Amino acid sequence: MRYPLLQIDQLILFLMDPGRYKEPDNRCMVRLMEAIRQEDNPFVSGFPTPVKSIIKNIKDNTYHHAVLAWWNYNGQTPFFSHARQVRKVRYVIKKGMI
């Protein structure tokens, strides 16, 4: 039996590997990113280092910007661990964000 993820866990996993994990819906993404970016939020210190770095580089609270920040954090790598990850990056490229 597979248990559903908490929204924050889903966001963290999505930031680490977009495409492999489904992004939270837009409303949740905006609310979670606003909460994460609060300077007095003690939970951010428990996030994996790549996620902290990606969060710093996200310019807007949309998943397009999250994918762009992931792409830049990983050195615009041509190597992807999952086919859906490639689709996410291609989608952002088509939108003209990269």
Uncertain parts: none
- Let me know the average pLDDT: 80
The biggest sheet amounts to: none
Helical fraction equals 40-55%
What is the global morphology? globular
Strand content: under 5%
Let me know the number of strands. Answer: 0
Structure classification: mainly alpha
Number of helices: 5
Give the termini distance in whole angstroms: 39 Å
- The string of secondary-structure elements, in order, is HHHHH
Estimate nothing, just give the exact number of structural domains. Answer: 1
Radius of gyration: 13 Å
Give the structure's gist in a few sentences.
The protein is mostly helical and 98 residues long.
3D architecture notes:
The protein has 98 residues and is mostly helical. Helices cover 54% and strands 0% of the residues. It has one domain (7-94). It contains 5 helices and no strands. α3 packs across α4 and α4 crosses α5. The protein is globular, with a radius of gyration of 13 Å.
Task: Spell out the blueprint of helices and strands.
Layout: H1 7-16, H2 26-36, H3 49-57, H4 63-73, H5 83-94
Helix pairs in contact: 3-4, 4-5
Task: Describe the structure using short key phrases.
98 residues; mainly alpha; 5 helices
